[in-house]
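C-alpha cells as discussed.
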C-alpha cells in the first residue's frame, strides 16, 4: 500500500469526526462555539505537523473556522513525491541532540529548573516544593499488593527513580533507594487518636519537601483503618511528574494493583530522550519566540499587586491551604454552552472571571498572570505514555483597563492568550528572567491560573475502583502565592485555589474566592452577566460595615462660620478672645467691635455678599480682625501669605477676583525684602499686582463706625477661598461654603467638649486650612485663641512658653509642628494640654507615646481630610497612647458627622477591604468647587447615589473594622524598572522603625534613576540600618537604594514637609560617597567577583553589587556555582549560598563561614589566582618540574 500526502479535507475530517456524522459544524461556524479549546488546538496542530503539515497554533486560533483552515491547509499541503510512493513507516523520533547514556546526568527542563531553584530556603517565596498530594478513602486496599504495584510502576517510569543533584542536573537511578511504600496501621486506635494520626500525615504530606537529591520524588503511604477502611496517600514532586503525568502514573498504578502481571503497552522512549529531541526541534521556533517576547519585555506589566502581609510578619510563610468549589455536571454544561455561545472556551471564561477578581482585589486593571501549558509535543508515538515534566508557561498580559462587558474582556483575553501561547516555545520562566535582567531585581509571577479542562477526569474510574474516592487534594509551588486550578471531576467542574495563607491579610482570600466562585456560578445561570461590566465585588459583610461607619447623619447647626463668635461676644463681651505675647489680650467685645468696624470700611468700598477680599497680614490680632471683618461684611476671605512671591499673588488675584486686600499697611512680597508703606501712596515702585487704591490697612479700617450687625448670608455662601498647589503649576482656589466649614467645627467642638475655658495655640498659617478650626473652633465655643508672633513660626521654644503662660488646653496642627514642640520640651512641660488634634499630613506612631510623656492624660487624635472637604473629614483617637503593632501610621479612622467616605477603583467600584483605591469624601463637608475652573470642578467633584463627592486623589484602603488607612497621594505613585511603587508605602515602612520619626521617599534625578528616601531619626541611626529594616518590611523593589538621615526634615511655611528641600538631602552625597564599586580585599572575594563578572558579562563587579541588578537570573546562578566549584575545587558552593546573599562579597563571606576546613577556600583561591596570572609557557614550565 502506498502513502500519499494528506489532503486538506482528510486532515479536516480528523477534526469534524469528533462531533459525529449527524451534525458537523458549518464551514463558517466558529469552532470555539463547538467546544474547541487551547489544548485541543495544540493537539490538532501537533498531529498535523506529524503528518508533514507545518501549521502553527496561532494560525489556527486566528480564525477558527473550517473554511479558513481548509484554505490554510491547502496552502501548506506537502508536495506529491517525485518518484513512486514509499511504504508507510512507523514514526521515528527526530534526530537532534544526543540522548544521554542511561544513568548519566542530563540537564533540567526550564520549568524543572525553576522548581529546583524555588525550593531553596533563601529564595523569595521559596522553602516550598512543587508537588501534588492526594488522599483516597477506600476499603480493602491490600498493603502487599500495593507495594508490588508501586515497584512495578517505578520500573516502568524512570523519572520515579530520578535524583536531582546540587549542581542543577538530574539523573535516573537504576532502582529505588528506599522502601516503595509505608503502612500506617491505625486499626487498633480509638477514633479520636486515629483521626489525629491521619491529620498529622495530611499536614506533613501537604507541606512536604521530599529529598529529591537522594532520589525521593514520590511518597506512597497506606493508612489502615477499622472495619476494612483505608486511606491512600500519594505525594509526587513535580520535578519528576507534572499534573498530566500524575494522571498517567495513577492510572498505571491502578492497573498494576488490579493485575500485578498486567502487560501495559511498552514505552519505547524516555524522558531524557524527549528533552534531547525537543531541544533540537524547537531551536528555531524558540529563537523566534524569544525575539518576539524580548520586544515586549519593556512594556509588560507586573504581577497583580494583591494586599500582602510583610514577610517578617507571616506566622508560617510556607503554609498552603486549599479552597474549592464544585460545579455539578448540569451547571458545568450550562457554563460551557453560554461560553461557546459567546465565542469563548469555558477555560477562558473562567480565566476572565479569575482576572476580574484579581483586578478588583489589587486595584490594578493590568497585570501578568502565570498560565501553565501542558505541552507534550513529541514525535515519538509513546510520548503520551511517559511520566515527566512537560509543562511550559505563558505570561499572560491581562488588561482590563477599559470598562467593557464581561464578554468583551473575555474575548480580548482569549485573543491575547492565543497570541501569547503561539510563542510559548520561549517560556514564561525565561521571560521572567528577561524581566529580572531588564528591571535589575528579581521579578516573579506568583499568581497562577491552571486549566486542565479537556484533559479528561482527574482520576479515572479504575483509580477510584482500586483506591476509593479522592477526599483531599492540594498542590504547592515555589514562588507562588495563589494558584487557581480548574479541572474535571465527577462530570462537573472543580475549581481549586491553593494559597500561601499567611501571606494575605485575614479574610482577604475567603472574600476573593467567594467573589470568584459566585461570578463563575452566575456565568452559568444568568445571561445578562455576560453582557454587562462586572460590578463591585464587595461581600455583603463588608458592605454592612461600610454602611455602619458611614451612618453619620446628625442635625446641622445651620450657622455661619462667624455666627457663633458674634453670639458669644454678645453674651460674654469681657471674656478673652485673643491672647498673645506675655500679657496682651483682646476680649470678645473688643474683637467684635473691631470686626464690625472693618466690615463697615469694606462696605463703604462696595464689598458685599458674593465678593471676595484678600487678607494679607502677619499672624496677630489684626489678621483675625480682618478675617472676621470680611465675613461680617457678607464676603469671603482669601488668605494671601505675606511671603507669597508677586507672580503667585497675581495668579491668586486673577482667579479669586478680589479687588481689595486687607493689610497691615506694609507692602509684602516684593521679592527684594524691602517694606513699602501704602498709606501715603506708592513708595519705591508698586508691584504689578497691587496699587494703593486696592489695599486697605486694618488700622485705617478701624476708624470707621461699626456696622450694627453682621450682614446676613445663606450657609451655602462661600466663607473663604483657599489656594492650594495645582498639578499644572497654577494654584487652585477652593471655594468653601459656611455649611461645609461649620460641619467640621460643630463635630470637633462637640466631640472634644470645647468650652469657654479652653484655649488653643494657633500655629497654622492663615492660608492653611487648619487655621480655620484654630480660629472658629474656639471662637464659636467661647474659648480663647493664643496667637504666636510671625517671627516665631519656625521656633518651637516660644510656643512652649505660650502654652505654659496662657494655659493652652488644645492644639490643632500638622504632625511636624507637634514633633518640633515635643523636641523643645521635657517630661511634664505640656501638662496643661487636654487634647491634641493632628491633621494635614502623616501622623507618626511615635507621637502618642511622646506626647503622653510631655502631657500625661492628654487626648491624642489623628484627623484626615483635604482643603476641598473643609479641614478634616475623618477621625481616629489613640486611647492611652496605645498604638497597635500593625499600624504604620495613625490611620484616618472613620468619618465625622454628616461625612461619608468611599475607596474606589479605576472603574468607579468600591474596593474590597485591604485593597488600595482612590479616597472619595462626600456629604456636608464638601466644598463648592474650584473658583473660576468649571472643568476641574467637574473632574474632581461628582454626584453618585444622591451624594456629592470629592475625588481626593489620595490612596486609601479600608480595614475589615471599617477603619480607613491613608496610603499617600495617588500622584506619589511612581514606576521604577517596571514596578509600580507607592511612595506612601515606602514611607510608612521606614517610619515603622523605632528610631524614625518621619520618612519621605522619591526618585533620584538624572541617569540611573533609583528609589531614595530621607528620614528624620534619632542620632546614631544610619542609612544602612534603615535599608536592612526596609528589606524586612518591604518588597525588594521598594527598598530605597539610598537613605539620607537627618535630625529634622525641612518644612514649608505651613509646617508641612518641604518635599523639594527634602529631595536635596538624598541628591547630595557626602565626602567619599561617590559611586565606586567596593573592591575585593581577599583572594576568595577576588575569585568570586571575577567569576561573577565573567558569567554576567560585566567589566567589573564590586563586592556589594546586586546579583539581579547585574543581570543575573536562576540559570546564570547555576553557571556561577559550577564555575566557582571548579575554580575553588570544592562542592561546598551552592545556589543556596548565592541566593541567600545576592552580592559577591556576601557570597564569599558565607562560603568562608560555612566551609568544613577553615581557611582552605582562601588558600585555594590564592593558588587559582596565581595560576590564572601565569602564561601558558609558565604553566607548562611549572608542570614540567613536577
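Sequence:
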Amino acid at each position: 500500500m502506498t502513502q500519499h500526502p494528506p489532503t486538506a479535507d482528510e486532515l479536516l475530517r480528523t477534526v469534524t469526526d469528533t462531533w459525529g456524522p449527524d451534525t458537523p459544524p458549518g464551514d463558517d461556524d466558529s469552532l470555539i462555539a463547538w467546544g474547541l479549546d487551547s489544548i485541543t488546538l495544540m493537539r490538532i496542530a501537533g498531529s498535523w505537523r506529524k503528518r508533514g503539515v507545518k501549521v502553527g497554533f496561532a494560525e489556527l486560533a486566528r480564525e477558527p473556522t473550517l473554511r479558513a483552515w481548509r484554505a490554510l491547509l491547502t496552502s501548506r499541503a506537502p508536495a506529491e513525491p517525485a518518484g513512486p510512493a514509499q511504504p508507510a513507516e512507523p514514526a521515528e523520533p527526530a534526530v537532534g541532540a544526543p540522548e544521554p547514556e542511561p544513568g548519566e546526568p542530563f540537564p533540567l527542563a526550564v520549568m524543572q529548573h525553576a522548581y529546583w531553584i524555588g525550593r531553596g530556603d533563601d529564595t523569595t517565596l521559596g522553602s516550598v516544593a512543587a508537588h501534588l498530594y492526594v488522599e483516597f478513602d477506600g476499603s480493602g486496599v491490600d498493603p502487599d499488593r500495593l507495594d508490588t504495584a508501586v515497584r512495578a510502576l517505578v520500573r516502568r517510569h524512570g523519572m520515579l527513580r530520578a535524583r536531582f543533584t546540587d549542581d542543577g542536573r538530574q539523573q535516573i537511578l537504576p532502582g529505588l533507594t528506599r522502601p516503595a511504600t509505608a503502612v500506617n496501621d491505625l486499626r487498633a486506635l480509638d477514633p479520636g487518636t486515629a483521626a489525629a494520626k491521619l491529620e498529622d500525615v495530611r499536614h506533613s504530606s501537604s507541606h512536604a519537601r521530599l529529598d529529591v537529591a537522594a532520589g525521593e520524588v514520590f511518597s506512597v503511604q497506606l493508612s489502615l483503618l477499622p472495619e476494612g477502611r483505608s486511606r491512600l496517600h500519594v505525594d509526587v514532586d513535580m520535578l519528576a511528574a507534572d499534573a498530566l503525568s500524575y494522571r498517567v502514573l495513577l492510572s498505571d498504578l491502578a492497573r498494576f494493583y488490579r493485575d500485578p502481571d498486567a502487560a501495559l503497552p511498552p514505552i519505547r522512549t524516555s524522558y531524557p530522550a524527549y528533552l534531547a529531541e525537543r531541544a533540537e526541534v524547537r531551536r528555531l521556533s524558540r529563537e523566534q519566540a524569544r525575539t518576539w517576547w524580548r520586544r515586549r519585555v519593556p512594556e509588560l506589566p507586573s504581577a497583580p499587586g494583591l494586599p500582602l502581609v510583610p514577610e517578617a510578619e507571616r506566622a508560617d510563610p510556607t503554609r498552603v491551604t486549599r479552597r474549592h468549589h464544585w460545579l455539578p455536571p448540569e451547571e458545568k454544561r450550562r457554563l460551557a454552552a453560554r461560553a461557546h455561545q459567546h465565542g469563548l472556551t469555558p477555560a477562558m471564561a473562567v480565566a476572565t472571571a479569575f482576572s476580574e477578581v484579581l483586578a478588583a482585589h489589587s486595584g490594578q486593571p493590568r497585570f501578568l498572570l502565570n498560565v501553565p501549558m501542558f505541552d507534550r509535543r513529541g514525535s515519538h508515538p509513546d510520548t503520551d505514555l511517559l511520566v515527566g515534566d512537560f509543562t511550559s508557561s505563558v505570561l499572560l498580559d491581562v488588561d482590563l483597563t477599559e470598562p467593557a462587558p464581561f464578554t468583551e474582556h473575555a474575548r480580548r483575553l482569549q485573543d491575547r492568550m492565543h497570541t501569547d501561547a503561539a510563542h510559548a516555545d520561549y517560556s514564561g520562566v525565561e521571560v521572567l528572567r528577561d524581566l529580572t535582567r531588564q528591571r535589575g531585581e528579581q521579578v516573579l509571577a506568583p499568581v497562577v491560573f491552571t486549566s486542565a479542562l479537556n484533559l479528561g477526569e482527574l482520576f479515572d474510574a479504575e483509580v477510584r475502583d482500586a483506591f476509593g474516592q479522592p477526599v483531599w487534594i492540594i498542590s504547592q509551588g515555589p514562588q507562588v502565592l495563589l494558584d487557581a486550578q480548574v479541572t474535571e471531576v465527577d462530570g462537573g467542574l472543580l475549581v481549586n485555589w491553593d494559597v500561601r495563607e499567611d501571606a494575605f491579610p485575614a479574610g482577604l482570600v475567603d472574600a476573593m474566592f467567594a467573589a470568584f466562585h459566585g461570578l463563575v456560578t452566575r456565568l452559568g445561570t444568568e445571561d445578562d452577566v455576560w453582557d454587562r461590566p462586572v460590578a463591585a465585588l464587595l461581600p455583603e459583610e463588608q458592605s454592612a460595615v461600610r454602611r455602619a461607619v458611614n451612618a453619620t447623619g446628625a442635625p446641622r447647626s445651620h450657622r455661619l462660620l462667624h455666627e457663633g463668635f458674634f453670639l458669644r461676644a454678645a453674651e460674654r463681651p469681657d471674656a478673652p478672645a485673643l491672647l498673645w505675647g506675655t500679657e496682651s489680650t483682646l476680649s470678645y467685645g473688643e474683637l467684635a467691635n473691631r470686626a464690625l468696624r472693618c466690615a463697615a470700611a469694606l462696605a463703604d468700598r462696595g464689598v458685599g455678599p458674593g465678593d471676595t477680599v484678600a487678607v494679607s497680614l502677619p499672624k496677630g490680632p489684626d489678621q483675625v480682625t480682618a478675617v472676621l471683618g470680611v465675613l461680617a461684611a457678607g464676603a469671603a476671605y482669601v488668605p494671601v501669605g505675606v511671603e507669597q512671591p508677586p507672580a503667585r499673588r497675581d495668579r491668586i488675584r486673577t482667579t479669586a477676583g478680589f479687588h481689595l486686600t486687607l493689610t497691615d499697611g506694609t507692602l509684602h512680597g516684593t521679592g527684594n525684602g524691602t517694606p513699602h508703606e501704602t498709606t501715603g501712596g506708592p513708595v519705591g515702585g508698586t508691584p504689578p499686582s497691587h496699587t494703593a487704591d486696592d489695599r486697605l490697612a486694618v488700622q485705617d479700617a478701624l476708624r470707621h463706625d461699626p456696622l450694627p450687625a453682621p450682614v446676613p448670608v445663606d450657609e451655602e455662601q462661600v466663607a473663604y477661598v483657599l489656594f492650594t498647589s495645582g498639578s499644572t503649576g497654577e494654584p487652585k482656589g477652593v471655594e468653601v461654603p459656611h455649611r461645609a466649614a461649620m460641619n467640621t467645627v460643630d463635630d470637633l467642638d462637640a466631640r472634644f467638649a470645647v468650652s469657654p475655658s479652653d484655649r488653643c495655640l494657633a500655629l497654622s498659617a492663615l492660608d492653611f486650612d487648619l487655621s480655620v478650626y484654630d480660629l472658629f473652633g474656639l471662637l464659636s465655643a467661647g474659648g480663647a485663641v493664643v496667637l504666636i508672633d510671625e517671627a516665631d513660626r519656625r521656633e518651637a521654644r516660644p510656643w512652649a512658653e505660650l502654652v505654659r503662660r496662657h494655659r493652652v488646653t488644645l492644639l490643632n496642627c500638622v504632625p511636624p509642628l507637634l514633633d518640633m514642640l515635643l523636641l523643645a520640651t521635657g517630661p511634664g512641660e505640656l501638662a496643661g494640654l487636654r487634647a491634641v488634634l493632628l491633621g494635614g499630613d502623616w501622623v507618626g506612631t511615635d507621637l502618642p507615646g511622646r506626647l503622653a510623656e510631655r502631657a500625661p492624660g492628654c487626648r491624642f487624635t489623628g484627623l484626615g481630610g483635604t482643603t476641598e472637604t473643609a479641614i478634616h473629614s475623618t477621625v481616629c483617637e489613640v486611647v492611652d497612647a496605645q498604638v497597635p503593632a500593625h499600624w504604620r501610621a495613625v490611620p484616618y479612622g472613620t468619618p465625622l458627622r454628616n461625612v461619608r467616605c468611599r475607596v474606589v477603583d479605576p472603574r468607579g467600584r468600591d474596593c474590597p477591604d485591604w485593597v488600595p483605591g482612590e479616597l472619595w469624601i462626600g456629604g456636608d463637608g464638601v466644598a463648592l468647587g474650584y473658583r473660576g475652573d468649571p472643568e476641574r470642578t467637574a473632574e474632581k467633584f461628582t454626584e453618585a447615589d444622591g451624594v456629592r463627592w470629592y475625588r481626593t486623589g489620595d490612596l486609601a484602603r479600608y480595614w475589615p473594622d471599617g477603619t480607613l488607612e491613608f496610603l499617600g497621594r495617588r500622584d506619589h505613585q511612581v514606576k521604577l524598572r517596571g514596578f509600580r511603587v507607592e511612595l506612601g508605602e515606602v514611607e510608612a515602612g521606614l517610619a515603622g522603625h523605632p528610631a524614625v520619626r518621619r520618612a519621605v521617599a522619591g526618585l533620584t534625578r538624572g541617569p540611573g534613576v533609583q528609589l531614595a528616601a530621607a528620614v528624620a531619626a534619632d542620632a546614631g541611626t544610619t542609612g544602612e540600618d534603615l535599608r536592612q529594616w526596609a528589606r524586612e518590611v518591604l518588597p525588594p523593589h521598594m527598598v530605597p537604594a539610598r537613605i539620607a538621615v537627618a535630625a529634622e526634615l525641612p518644612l514649608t511655611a505651613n509646617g508641612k514637609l518641604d518635599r523639594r528641600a527634602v529631595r536635596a538631602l538624598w541628591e547630595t552625597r557626602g565626602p567619599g560617597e561617590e559611586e565606586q564599586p567596593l573592591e575585593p580585599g581577599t583572594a576568595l572575594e577576588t575569585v568570586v567577583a571575577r567569576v561573577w563578572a565573567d558569567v554576567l558579562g560585566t567589566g567589573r563587579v564590586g563586592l556589594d553589587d546586586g546579583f539581579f541588578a547585574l543581570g543575573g537570573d536562576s540559570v546564570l546562578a547555576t553557571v556561577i556555582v559550577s564555575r566557582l566549584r571548579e575554580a575553588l575545587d570544592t562542592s561546598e558552593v551552592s545556589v543556596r549560598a548565592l541566593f541567600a546573599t545576592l552580592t559577591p562579597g556576601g557570597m564569599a563571606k558565607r562560603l568562608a563561614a560555612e566551609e568544613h576546613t577553615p581557611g582552605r577556600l582562601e588558600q585555594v583561591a590564592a593558588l587559582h589566582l596565581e595560576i590564572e596570572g601565569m602564561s601558558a609557557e609558565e604553566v607548562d614550565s611549572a608542570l614540567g618540574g613536577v
